[in-house]
Design a protein that fits this description.
Elements: H1 3-16, E1 24-29, H2 34-49, E2 54-62, H3 68-71, H4 73-82, E3 85-90, H5 93-100, H6 106-124, E4 129-131, H7 136-150, E5 159-162, E6 167-170, H8 178-188, H9 204-218, H10 222-231
Parallel strand pairs: 1-2, 1-4, 2-3, 4-6
Antiparallel strand pairs: 5-6
Helix pairs in contact: 1-2, 2-8, 5-6, 7-9, 7-10
Length: 248
């Protein structure tokens, strides 16, 4: 995926769900993975030509795994090149999840603690919005996981207001395929580092990801149809969708 294509697809999501308003200060969560770094590039590029002015902060929550200081050095350099302030929040989440609690299914607790630390940092930095790097495949997988494990048709919303934190969550990559994120990472040599979590690749989400790939291989177009079902599903908590270029 080329840079301009990424900007165009990101703008579509931002326009259709009115994700950005004038004067927004948006914290971008940087995990070190391909999705969050692609999101950073997307919003930085959009910032240069979008009619509504907004500012960005990049934030990484250090979970406490070894070598994190070394891993983030290339990200620090990237943020400096882009002119984006970069903040690292140090935590002991890894030791809480894997040592103190010894969770059999650690992902849920880890995600909750990580999001909590990120959101608090965003508030401390004066941000009113936070951006997550969830893409189209994430949305399809979440919907399928809800069907399989919860017995309901559900997917996280493109825009969510967190009352307690007074923050709005936005997901500007919702129309971007994971394959395009991978292509973008390779084309522009993003400074991605491997997830140090011992549970990485051994989760319900990874199982569902492989299931979606199998279904799509056997039924071409399946993933796109499932994504369309999510968009047209009148899901609770979703904002109104405004198709076409936003009016200013």
């Amino acid at each position: 995926m080329k840079m301009q294509r990424l900007f165009n697809v990101t703008r579509r999501a931002v326009d259709e769900f009115h994700m950005i308003e004038p004067g927004d200060k948006i914290a971008v969560g940087i995990s070190g993975g391909k999705d969050s770094l692609t999101l950073l590039y997307a919003l930085h590029g959009l910032q240069r030509f979008y009619p509504l002015p907004f500012t960005l902060e990049a934030v990484t929550v250090d979970l406490g795994f070894p070598d994190m200081d070394k891993n983030i050095l290339p990200i620090e350099a990237l943020c400096k090149d882009l002119g984006i302030k970069y903040t690292v929040v140090h935590s002991e989440i890894a030791s809480i999840v894997f040592e103190a609690r010894q969770e059999e299914n650690p992902c849920s607790l880890c995600a909750k603690l990580r999001k909590g630390a990120f959101n608090r940092a965003a508030v401390d930095l004066g941000c009113n919005k936070v951006a997550y790097g969830h893409h189209k495949d994430d949305m399809v997988e979440t919907m399928l996981m809800s069907l399989i494990y919860e017995g309901r048709f559900h997917c996280f919303s493109p825009v969510t207001y967190l009352d307690r934190m007074q923050l709005t969550v936005i997901r500007p990559l919702m129309y971007v395929d994971e394959a395009d994120v991978i292509g973008f990472k390779n084309r522009y040599e993003l400074p991605v580092f491997k997830n140090p979590c011992p549970a990485d690749g051994n989760t319900r989400r990874e199982y569902t990801k492989q299931l979606v790939k199998k279904l799509t291989l056997e039924n071409p177009g399946c993933k796109e149809r499932m994504f369309t079902a999510v968009l047209n599903g009148n899901l609770a908590g979703w904002p109104e969708r405004h198709e076409g270029r936003r009016e200013y």
